[in-house]
Amino acid sequence: MTSPSPSEANATEGALIKLWYRFVPREGWLPYDTEGLWATRLGGDTARVANAPFLQDGVAEGEVVRFVTDADGLHWAKERVEASGNCTVRVLPVPSGPLGRSAQAVHERLSPFGLAGEVFSEDLPLVSFTVPAGADLGGIKALLARGRDDGWWHFEVPCATDAWRDA
Fold it and tell me: How crowded is the C-beta side of 30, counted as CA atoms within 13 Å?
């Protein structure tokens, strides 16, 4: 196998690729052991994560990650090269709570902070949000806690920054 020429390598820069993560499934949670995230290829073996993860912990949108490509052409994340400063927050509405199973209601509650998120599926209305580094972290944390305490949702922060922890 030969390495791509510099012109071939440059032709792939900026391309959207699927970046795969492998992890140990959580007990009592979804039975997956991999998750694919979209990423923008930056160079031969680095890419910038382009969406918020639903399952993988410790990564947020905007992170630069080094990867290896296997014989099947799959790009497997190996290490974070550059942190984005963003956080990942996952919110799951409580079916018996005031929001019901509505991912849209979750979006509406968090939209004043400029947050947009992706929904896992209609059957599992888990919403994964990217919280930008410059967002009102204290306000977001207060709303998340209030929503949990009022029975709106469960939430977790699988990728937090020092700024998030200090807010």
Answer: 13
CA distances from 132 to 10, 53, 68 (A): 29, 14, 27
Distance CA 20, CA 27 (A): 21
The pLDDT tens digits of the residues spanning 49-97 come to 999 999 999 999 999 999 999 999 999 999 999 999 999 999 999 999 9
* Helix pair 137-149, 103-110: axis angle to 10 deg: 140
Q: How far is Cα 148 from Cα 31, in angstroms, rounded to an integer? A: 25
User: Per the structure block, which two tokens stand in for 46?
Assistant: 């680095």
Q: Give Cβ neighbours of residue 122 (< 8 Å, ≥ 6 apart).
A: none
> Helix, strand, coil shares of the chain as percentages rounded to 5?
20, 35, 45
The answer to whether the CB of 49 falls within 8 A of the CB of 39 is yes
* Pair 65, 80: CB distance under 8 Å: yes
Alpha carbon distance 15, 3 (integer Å): 18
Closest among 134, 144, 23 to 37, alpha carbons compared:
23
Tokens (6 digits) for 136: 């009102």
In angstroms, the first-to-last Cα distance of the chain is: 50
Cα–Cα distance between 157 and 142 in angstroms, integer?
13
| Contact (Cβ atoms closer than 8 angstroms) between residue 29 and residue 3 | no
